[in-house]
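$ run holo --ligand "NAP" --emit C-alpha cells
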Amino acid sequence: MPRRVIAVEYTGPEALRLEETDPLGPGEGQVVIAVRAAALNPADGKGIQGQWGADLTKLPLRPGSEVAGVVTAVGGGVTAPRVGDAVVAFRVVGGWADEVRTSAANAFRLPADADLAQAAGLLLAGTTAWHLLEATGLGAGTAGADTAAGRTVIVHGASGAVGELAVQLAVLRGARVVGTASERNQDAVRALGAEPVVYGPGLEQRLRALLPDGADAALDTVGTDEAIDTSLALTGDRSRVATIAAFARGAEAGIHLLGGGPGADPGSALRAAARGPLVDLFARGALRVRVADGYPLERAREALERVMSGHPGGKVLLVPTALPDRRLLG
Ligand SMILES: NC(=O)c1ccc[n+]([C@@H]2O[C@H](COP(=O)([O-])OP(=O)(O)OC[C@H]3O[C@@H](n4cnc5c(N)ncnc54)[C@H](OP(=O)(O)O)[C@@H]3O)[C@@H](O)[C@H]2O)c1
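-- output --
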C-alpha cells in the first residue's frame, strides 16, 4: 500500500504521522507520479505550526508541494507527460508520499537522466527567486523590461534555497551579485558566481567595501531588520528592494512584499509561467540545486526539524522508495 505523511494538529514536526492509503487513480486531466524525491520547505513547517491559519476542519494536512518522480498513470485528455516520463511537479498537494496525483499541467518533463533529487527542490524556490528578480527590475528581458545585465545585486540569504536560485538567475542574466551567508557557507555562495559576505554586525560596512557606489537592487530572503536596513542603505531606492520574509517591516519601509504574507503580491501567474523556463534551464545544466540530505518517509519529523532550524545547508528531501540509483542523492 502507498504511504503518505500527514500532520494531525497545528503544532510542529511532532504533528507528523505516516499512514497507508489506497493506490491513487488519475482523474480527467491528471497524472499519478511515483515520487522519487519530495522537497521540504520552510512554508510546510509554517503551515503545520498554524501560521497560515488553524482551521481544524482542514486537518489532517497533507504537506509537500513539490516532487520529482516518474509518471505511472495518466487520465483522460492527457497527451503529455506520458507514462514512464521523469517529471518534476509543482504545485502539488500531499507530496510527502510514495505517490501523488496532480493536474498534468503541473508536471514538467525532465531528461531521462536528470538528477531527480535536485529537481525536487527546484520549483518552489526557483519561482520565488524569479519573482524577486522581476519585482526589482531584473526581469528576464522581455520587450521593454529592465534587465540585469551590468547591474549590481545584493542577495540576503544567498546560501538558502531561494537565495541560491536568485543568485544563479541574476548571474545568468549578467548581474554582479554580492550574497550574504554564514561563515561556513561562503564557499557555496562563491561557487554560484557571487561574491560572498558574512551576515551579522558590520554588514553594511562589508557591503560598502565591495560596493562603494551602492547596489542597483537588493533581494531579501531572510527577513531580518539587518537585511532590510542594509538593502535600503545600499540601494537608496525602496522600489529596488523586495522581501519574501519581512512583511511587517517591509510594509513600513514601502518595499516590494512578495508571496503569501499580509499585503504581499502573490505573483501567482508570473510564478506559474516561470516553471517551464526554470525546468528548461535546469535540464540544460544552467541551474543547480544544493541537496543537503534525503530522509525516508519514516523520518519526516527529523527532516522537518532540520528545515525549521533555518540553516539546513541545502534542500532537505524525503526519498520514499528504496533508491536503486545513487544519483538521486547526488
Ligand atoms: N514569500 C514567499 O513567496 C516565499 C517563498 C519561499 C520561501 N519564503 C520564505 O523565505 C525564507 C527562506 O526560504 P528558503 O527556502 O530559502 O530557506 P532555507 O533554504 O532554509 O535558507 C535559509 C537561509 O537563511 C540564512 N539565514 C539564516 N539566518 C540568517 C540571518 N540572521 N541573516 C542572514 N541569513 C540568514 C541561512 O544561511 P546560513 O545557513 O548560511 O546561516 C540559510 O541559507 C523562509 O522564511 C521562507 O518561509 C517565502
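-- notes --
Residues 125-257 form a domain with the Rossmann fold fold (CATH 3.40.50.720).
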